[in-house]
Amino acid sequence: VEGGDLLATCKIDQLTRSVPGKQITLDGFSRDVQQALGKNCQQVVSAGQTVNPNGIRVMRVEAAGNVGATPIRWIYYHLSDDTGQRLSYIFTLEASQLDRFAGMDEVMTASVEFLTDVERQARASKALQK
């Protein structure tokens, strides 16, 4: 939300752990996105992968299409590490909002970190002490 206007929605899913060291490929992720969008997907605009500042592997697929008469952009992310932790999220926005959205997804992605089990337990204990 910006200035009272809805720019995009974001759906976040913590995925089940995968086998440590086993990663989905960018081609496989792109195919999954196209399959999920079905007939709404007119084209994959971009697909790429990188590593965020916290060492997490990031795959991003942006797709364009329509829902009814409204042009839509979907920006899919799959984040993972070598221990098997995985996270997925999808930004959905009207294509007319792309300029205003302007990389907000990248800001969020740069800040994502995965905690170890020990770190999670320590934070949970600290929260209970408050």
Write a short abstract of this structure:
This protein has 130 residues and is of the alpha+beta class.
Overview of the structural elements:
This protein is α+β, with helices and mostly antiparallel strands. It is 28% helix and 38% strand. It has four helices and five strands; from the N terminus they run E-H-E-E-E-E-H-H-H. It has helices at residues 26-37, 98-101, 104-111, 117-129; strands spanning 9-15, 41-51, 57-67, 70-80, 86-94. A five-stranded antiparallel sheet has the order 1-5-4-3-2, with helices on one face. The chain is globular. The two termini are 31 Å apart. The model has no long low-confidence stretch (mean pLDDT 89).
Key descriptive features of the protein:
single chain; five-stranded antiparallel β-sheet; 28% helix; 5 strands; globular; 130 residues; alpha+beta
Order of helices and strands: EHEEEEHHH
Mean pLDDT: 89
Number of extended strands: 5
Radius of gyration: 17 Å
The dominant shape is globular
Q: How many separate helices?
A: 4
Strand content: 35-45%
* Low-confidence parts: none
Strand order of the largest sheet: 1-5-4-3-2
Distance between the termini: 31 Å
Largest sheet: 5 strands, antiparallel
